[in-house]
Amino acid sequence: MRKIIHVDMDCFYAAVEEKYNPQLKGKPVGIGGPPNTRSVLCTANYEARKFGVRAAIPSSQAMRLCPQLILIPPHFDLYKKESQAIRGILEIFTSLIEPLSLDEAYLDVSDSNLFAGSATLLAKEIKRLVKLETGLTISAGVAPNKFLSKVASDWRKPDGLFTIAPHQVESFVKALPIEKIFGVGRVTAQHLHEKGIKTCLDLQNYPDKELQQHFGSRALELKRYAFGIDDRPVRTSFERKSVNVEETFNADRKTLQDAINELPSLFEDWTERMSRGSYFSRLKSLQVKLKFADFEQTTLEQVFAESQPPTLKHFEALLEKAWSRRNDPVRLIGLGAKLKSTATKDINKQEEQNLESPQLQMALSY
Question: 223: which of 88, 91, 106, 177 lies 20 to 30 Å off by Cα?
Fold first, then answer.
C-alpha cells in the first residue's frame, strides 16, 4: 500500500512576489504581461480570484474583471530560487520525489519510518518547515495514489492538509465530480455530462461496452480512476517526449508571408533547445501549430527520417500546408518536434486489460 503526498504551493508566483514586496499583501495581484498585449496570466492571488481573475485568462480580461488588479511581469529567477529551497526541505523526508513544476510535486513516503510511519504527520511537518524557512504556504494531500493525493491537496486550499485513507477511498470517490479525474478536461467533461455522467459513481455504473464505444482506449483509464485506482509510481526521472516553442503576437499575422517571416526566430530558439538537450538523435517528427484569431487551432505533423538535422525550409513547408487549411489570420505560431523514446517496449507482450479486472473489484473492498 503506497503512501503518496502531493504538495502544491499556494498561488506560488504571486506569493513569491508578495514575499519580496510586502506592500502587495492584501491586494489583488496577477502575474502576466501588460493588458494592451495578448499576454495571459500565469497565476493570480486569492484576492484577485474573488473577482473571477484566474490563470490562463488574457491580461486585458483580468483588468476588466478587476480594475484595481496589480499586474506584475514574471520573475522566474526568484521563483526558481524559492522552488529550490522548498525542494531541499522535501529531500529531508524522501528521495522519491517527482516534480511536476516549480510549485508542485509528488512524494512517495511509503517506506518512511518518520512519525511512526504516519504520512499525514509527515506532511504536516513539511508544511511547518516550508512556512518557517521560506515564509510561504503549501497545501498537501495524502492518499494511497497520485490521483487521489492531487485531489486531496486541492481540498482545503490555501494552506490546507487533507488525507484520504485507504478505507475511505470507496466512499470518497463516489461523490467526486468527474472533472476531478486526471486528464478530464472541459471537452471530455462535456461529453460525459451529455451521457448523464457527473460523478465518479455515475461513471462506475456506466456500461463498459458503451463507455468503450464513446471513449475507446481511454475507457479503462476513466473507469479505473472512477474507482480510485491509480497504479502510476512516483518517478524521479523524466524523459522528454517533445521540444516545442511558440509565440503569441500582439497583432494577427494576416498573410502566409507574414507568418513565414516569424519562423527564423522561432527556429533559432527551437534549435538551441534541441542542441542543449542533445535531442537531435531522437528526432521522430516535426510539427507546426497555428492558432487563429477565433482561438481555433490546427496542428500539422510530419515524420522526419533524414540523417541531418532539419532546416528552416522544413518548417516553412509544414507552415504552408497548415496555412492552406484555412488561409485565415493567426494569433499564434508554434513549431517543434516529437522525440523517440529511449525505453524499449515489446508491445506484442502487453496483455489487454479488461474493464472487469480484479483490481476494480478490489477497489470496492478498500
Answer: 106
